[in-house]
Amino acid sequence: MTAPPASTVTLENRFARELPELGVPWQATEAPDPRLLVLNEPLATELGLDPAFLRSSDGIRLLVGNLVASGATPVAQAYAGHQFGGYSPRLGDGRALLLGEVVGADGALRDLHLKGSGRTPFARGGDGLAAVGPMLREYVVSEAMHALGIPTTRSLAVVATGRPVRRESVLPGAVLARVASSHLRVGSFQYARANGDVELLRRLADHAIARHHPGAAQAEHPYLALFEAVVAAQASLVARWMLVGFVHGVMNTDNMTISGETIDYGPCAFLDAFDPATVYSSIDTGGRYAYGNQPVVAEWNLARLAEALLPLFHDEQDEAIELAVASLGAFRRQYDGAWAAGMRAKLGLPTRLDEAVTAPLADELLALLEANHVDHTSFFRGLGAAARGDTESARALFLDPSAVDAWLERWQALGPDDRTMDSVNPAYIPRNHLVEESLAAATDGDLGPLEQLVEVVTEPFHERPGLERYAAPSPDDFGAYRTFCGT
Q1: I need a labelling partner for 308 at 20 to 30 A (CA). Which of 207, 265, 324, 428 fits?
Q2: Among candidates 242, 252, 266, which has minimal Cα distance to 376?
Q3: How many Å separate Cα 391 from the centre of its chain?
């Protein structure tokens, strides 16, 4: 196939055009020697982009922001945010750039966005760059999350820049090109509210409704309906995180999307041994964003969104607060419902069973998993075999295998459906030791382990012979795991 000329790649500039106060027109830093490391060809095709062109020299320049597509107005987006509970009124894209929006083959509008593309006016002293390892981490984990059926930003490509990046050591630099329904965040609304411009806040809310929650436009109170839609989306999203053992690691308000997609895979990881207190982020010294805290933090973040939206809820602040509190109250009910339904499926239990039966069974199981330091993913996958009568793979994960016998007996008596279980309990996730192994190899120039890992985790429910090491828990000598945001 002959690659089309660069001028045939067209991006829209809807965000830049409709909300100029929330972006600074900017250009990516020139990459001295860009080299494509990985390209997500199926995603490119979904977006109506020709993979052959993206592999060309002009395509690679497009993917690092050094060639601007027709119609595009690249901007560094402005937003505020609470970071570890502390409010920062001006954060923004310090090392990122919204190239524009692409209309996919399905007609949907998606952002094309860069990470690690150089300093912007929001850089706050940082170098604006990114290293190969963290950008490939986001590629692997975001694509694994997509394969798990969890709403997420997605990775289109990672391009080595040929520029070294200084962190604790000198590392090869890279740019990630990622795709999202949009990059509107809770922090976007916090920034607009902090400016004191109610009309800007209203235009931002209208933009969010049009892009993500169009049904809200027909509601009696559209902006309250927008908030309620975000509450529902986040309740569902965080429940899905919890059900697969995903730990985001940095749930600041600038990392919570209005669309309900997972964003920013910095210090993220998946549970090894089940423990609600698990923290993987090197900077989360107080455990604010521990695995078990994620639902509470999500609700707290949504309260900050409600505060930002108050002027749109009602002219009288007391009335606005009353409406916000009532709408936010739905989060716990919706989260609990999503979690319970997901756990019922993980256990293969019939939907006719009363919650009074299933909830205590699930609670008892999680307590057993925690007490026995049981690998989360391996246990639930092994439970499918237990539903078929083979309990040994599940029992063997316990420090004291007999500790789970009584629970297994009661559970088996309920007639669990192993097919349902195998369709929701993954055999393969981006296990932490395998991610680190593949990133280390890629940083040294060997992409083979990473390509194999991506191939495995993007078919998470299809167990295949010869891939046993990808399904196994981390080795005993792997030790305490810590991840870093890469800035």
Answers
A1: 265
A2: 242
A3: 33
375 forms bridges with which residues in the sheet? 273
- Distance, in Å, from the CA atom of 99 to the CA atom of 78, rounded to the nearest integer, reads 14
Task: Return the CA Rg of the chain.
Answer: 23
Torsion of CA 429, 433, 438, 439, to 10 degrees: 110
From 111, 254, 264, 422, active-site residue: 254
Predicted model pTM:
0.95
Instruction: Name the nearest CA neighbour of 452 among 470, 468, 440, 436.
Output: 470
Q: Taking the alpha carbons of 375, 380, 384, 386 in that order, is the dihedral positive or negative?
A: positive
* Spatial distance between the Cα atoms of 246 and 218, rounded to a whole number of angstroms: 35
Q: Alpha carbon of 249 to those of 75, 78, 236, 271: distances in Å?
A: 27, 22, 18, 12
Q: Is 254 a catalytic residue?
A: yes
**Pairing label, strands 246-247, 269-270:** antiparallel
> Two tokens at 94?
């310090």
Q: Of 247, 225, 229, give the one whose Cα is nearest residue 238.
A: 247
Q: Which of 59, 64, 74, 93 is nearest to 13 (CA)?
A: 74
**Confidence check: pLDDT of 7 > 60:** no
Q: What is the pLDDT of residue 99?
A: 98
Residue 3: its pLDDT value, please?
A: 41
| Domain regions of the chain by residue span | 6-180, 186-340
Longest dimension (CA), the chain: 67
Quick check: 130 and 173 in contact, CB under 8 A? Answer: yes
Q: What's the rounded Cα separation, in Å, for the pair 198 and 193?
A: 7
pLDDT tens per residue across span 95-122: 999 999 999 888 899 999 999 999 999 9
